[in-house]
């Protein structure tokens, strides 16, 4: 399955499955946001975490009511602006925050392609990280062949396969969260805080 086919498959996801796909990718991106906040003192990481936890809770109990507009405001309040920081870390943090906003819009019915947005942001974060850290200029084939990009694409494909067998609920949510954190590193290979 190519990168393009991954996006096409994500586009087919609906409802719970689309939100679950997005939340799992965001869980993998969360350490990038945490590291940025900790290294710059930008914001309380707990606000981002609480909103992501609310999404997970909704996935566990889909009839649960969440004030999505309030959650969206909370994420907008803790989304950094690149012009205010000269460190590379602001970009993966923005990708994580925008992904969470897109997921909330998906849950609201405002953006039915929210899961595709998250899929592209996650892969885009990996691509820009590879470009920023590579000692040599890489063309698109070089980026696709990079182990970090291979891992990202494989993870998204594995997630799609897993979701196809899921009906929703607490057990599935626990499985997805475990999948997102089992390697102990973010999608950029940054170590996660085990807490």
UniProtKB/TrEMBL annotation:
Gene3D superfamilies: YP_001051499.1 domain like
Pfam families according to UniProt: DUF416 (PF04222)
Protein name per UniProt: YjaG family protein
